[in-house]
Design brief:
Elements: E1 20-21, H1 40-52, H2 59-65, H3 73-85, H4 91-100, H5 102-107, H6 115-124, H7 126-144, E2 145-146, H8 153-177
Parallel strand pairs: 1-2
């Protein structure tokens, strides 16, 4: 039941227990770990789709994806996006997950990147990481909330700002890790 102090979210009868309707006045608490909302394999699938949909004619995209194949830019991009989406921010957390998490192992083709590769990629391609993480957050909200349809521009902007905040957190924690 809706009261002035309660968010205006509700489970529609056909939505199941995990999906709710997002009302325009609802506060939105997106978890740092999207896997609490969406299956990890789904997140990995979205990452592949988002990378495949990148406009390769744009210089910032061409700059990332034109690296020699042995540099594995798509692998590092995928690994970082999944890590950020599942609340893994430091190099050591990401590298450990590449050896222990089945989805991360799959994303890095069984060969974990090196810490310096991750650090260099983060610094060099931050704008692309922010954009793609924002896209993933938008997809997660659409997946979690039925009838979300086209998200209002303010909410999309908020989710994209959230992506920037998560990447800032990762940068900060990684800098502390190196000390």
């Amino acid at each position: 039941m809706e009261t002035p102090g309660n968010p205006t979210r509700r489970n529609p009868p056909d939505a199941g227990p995990e999906r709710t309707v997002l009302m325009e006045t609802s506060p939105l608490d997106v978890p740092l770990d999207l896997a609490t909302w969406v299956a990890p394999q789904t997140i990995a699938h979205w990452i592949r789709e988002e990378i495949d949909q990148l406009d390769r004619s744009k210089p910032e995209v061409r700059g990332v994806l034109s690296h020699p194949p042995d540099a594995r830019p798509q692998v590092i991009l995928s690994v970082l996006l999944f890590a950020y989406s599942t609340q893994r921010f430091t190099n050591s957390e990401i590298l450990a997950a590449c050896h222990s998490d089945p989805v991360m192992k799959q994303l890095c083709d069984g060969q974990a990147p090196f810490a310096d590769e991750i650090g260099h990629f983060r610094r060099t391609h931050r704008a692309l990481l922010e954009f793609l993480l924002g896209q993933l957050l938008i997809r997660a909200v659409r997946e979690k909330f039925v009838e979300a349809g086209q998200l209002p521009p303010g909410l999309q902007r908020s989710l994209k700002n959230r992506a920037v905040d998560q990447i800032d957190t990762a940068r900060h924690l990684s800098s502390l890790e190196g000390q």
